[in-house]
């Protein structure tokens, strides 16, 4: 292979260093996917390795599909045998093949986040847990973190306090696991944890996969958690041919279990490891890269690298300080309109924010000015009710012990099976120790429990599923779906709603039939089980549709892996970005800085950083200081934009022929850095002089962030009443309260 035609010098080194452990530190926009795909092709073509002896692991289906597609382009159809999967997908395949070692059926169902939430809600109800005090979503998050850390219910129970959230999580965790087993289901985190258990407790299985996968490649290694780290260590023990690609400066998922130390300590784990840095960036201008590089250097926990590019110097980063969030939104909208005469389209612009709550004002402004936009959030296609309903039918056909799915659709479409019948069926299932589906086959034996009409409806439903199960053994996934829709009259059921969403729901179900047709066209395994596995492993970015001609709105987290010619980062204020939590935790602060770095390096041509003097938080208008991250950018890379220049005598900037940056430029006395510092000092001084005045923002190690409602007394007797976002209203003696002003 003539790699020099397609790769730069460092990329070639990364491709050709095939033997032994390798860490590829790949900066933003440095072509890491190209390196991984060419490395796979090189190992097959030049080293003579069989495609099936290579495994490449990613974090999203989108990345896996792109990677596999590129390898097939390079090598042809034989490359389909390479294992290119997400971690969860690969583990799911392993577990289906090795299910006998786990004591579960190979037809186990995979529960997605919504299924997990519903099951946890059921557990909370049965355990009489106050859902207001202990939200199921919070419990779900805690259980997920425990599973990612490979902590079992028994292990957790033995170490927690007998009260509070920990005690509740321990109880629910145990009940949740029992229900998963009863439904023959695994959740996302089980796919990883059970695979690790399998490799650690079944030496013959571990030995098989160690010999089978002689070369291991990992994308986004900085995002791996403990379970993924342990799995990779086990698989790589024998051959040590593990290549991990990642960027320590883009590790932004600590809150969901990612461990930055996995990439920082790679050379300790593999003393023979080689390190290659990919520092040439193919995305951003020199100014953007230099600014981002100087800012991220303030982090202590990093390997260090210097990105460079052959692209032009580029425009300075625009800094704008609005009076309030309406002014912030107005500036963004007018600037977007000003891009159109320069040859940009709406779809070239993206607005990033730290939290979803910030999008409302921007959305309102975009609508008022008739600027089309899309929001990368909300309900994914496979999370919509009508899709979940149809998929529930398919899941019961594949795994009749999936009681959660059966309960969802037992009366959808309406077939006269009421709550009373459901309660009786559930009681009978518990009495017999059977699943919901199995219990349907025993209702004849208990004629006193059900009315004749209810018994007939339940028996008819059982017959339907038994017929579908027989049909599914010979039919494709698409044919089974057609049969379900036809025999349940589900489309007619949707039409009967007669509301504004009727057509959308029907279109969604029709889109599902198209999705199955596409699945059958591109997949060797056309079974219903294979399709349901694929659906369960979708992520938010996999659902990103390409709405033409629309500006994009998203959290900075959602922007990872994307790029846009023009990026606006709003809410660049202390307590927002960086987030309030991080101001008392150095590790969290460094993660916030990495998140800011990710946002900056999504921009190709233009980058705008925007904040407000005043912003409504918890319903109160508060004065905000600029983000410290702005001050960490050398002023030579930034330019202050003057609000008064949004309009010209000829009309709005949308009609102005100059560049938006030129149209909005204003004086910046003393430079950006001094201006931000002076603003922070001036606006912060009011806070210091007032001490714990009404409206002051504070943070407490236990209760989190809050706002002072009132103060009483003075000196050592000073007391404050604080409204905490999570802890409620508290009256505290300042000298003992361990409060921190923000």
Automatic annotation (TrEMBL):
* TM helices/strands, residue ranges: none
Q: What are the GO BP annotations of this UniProt entry?
A: recombinational repair; response to radiation
Positions of the UvrD-like helicase ATP-binding domain: 5-285
Q: Which UniProt keywords apply?
A: ATP-binding, DNA-binding, Helicase, Hydrolase, Isomerase, Nucleotide-binding
**Which residue intervals define the domain UvrD-like helicase C-terminal in the entry?**
286-561
E.C. designation(s): 5.6.2.4
One Gene Ontology cellular component term attached to this UniProt record is: DNA helicase complex
Q: Where is this region: Disordered?
A: 651-691
InterPro entries, alphabetized = DExx_box_DNA_helicase_dom_sf, DNA_helicase_UvrD-like_C, DNA_helicase_UvrD/REP, P-loop_NTPase, UvrD-like_ATP-bd
Q: Any keyword Iron-sulfur?
A: no
The entry assigns this protein to a family as follows:
Belongs to the helicase family. UvrD subfamily.
Name used for this protein in its record: DNA 3'-5' helicase
